Amino acid sequence: MRTTTPLRRALITVTVTATAAVVLTATGSAVAVPVSGTAAAPHATAPSLSALHPVVELAAERLATADLVAAAKWGTDSPIDDPAREQQVLDNVAAQAQQLGADPDEVRVIFRDQIEANKIVQRGLFQRWTDHPDEAPTTKPDLSVVRQEINRVTSALVEALATTADDRSAVACRPELLLAALQVHHEDHLDALHTRALARALRSVCGS
């Protein structure tokens, strides 16, 4: 577990205070990120400032696949809510967590947030495309191929959660999470929709 030194705490405080806007989740917890820019884009990753950077980075990467899922479902009878698929994901991540020695119930809660965050993006894009048909996708990704990528990122995220279990239970978890969210937001140039979804995705990372 990484120790948060006075210098590190000062860096976190100054960085968050100077550059962040607070995005509140439904339960009142917060993730600090600047609210500007566009949707997620490829980036050159800067050196990680936070022990939780891999968790936030993978959560954002998983969110980026929501754009492809939305494009695949747009104009079809495939619903955004897919309870059977969601249950399968939750069961799989819990089983993987147990194999890695992580708390399966904790990982299940965190991935429930990932799923709800993904649906925030899908619903937001559906609304955008309904309001602005000229912005709607003209081609449909293969959903089975997209899900292969989702599965890859999901597995990597479970591993990151297992690796950072001590950091996520530490007193410094929330400021570390804030700093990681700031860095990933800057790297990925997240727009307002993806910023809001990322806040939802990270809600349970530090536990209660």
Automatic annotation (TrEMBL):
InterPro entries: Chorismate_II_sf (IPR036263), Chorismate_mutase-related (IPR051331), Chorismate_mutase_periplasmic (IPR008240), CM_dom_sf (IPR036979), CM_II_prokaryot (IPR002701), TAT_signal (IPR006311). Pfam families: CM_2 (PF01817). SUPFAM superfamilies: Chorismate mutase II. Its EC number is 5.4.99.5. GO terms for molecular function: chorismate mutase activity. Pathway: Metabolic intermediate biosynthesis; prephenate biosynthesis; prephenate from chorismate: step 1/1. Residues 33-126 form the Chorismate mutase domain. Keywords: Isomerase, Signal. PROSITE patterns: CHORISMATE_MUT_2 (PS51168), TAT (PS51318). The keyword Transmembrane helix does not apply. This is chorismate mutase. It comes from Streptomyces doebereineriae.
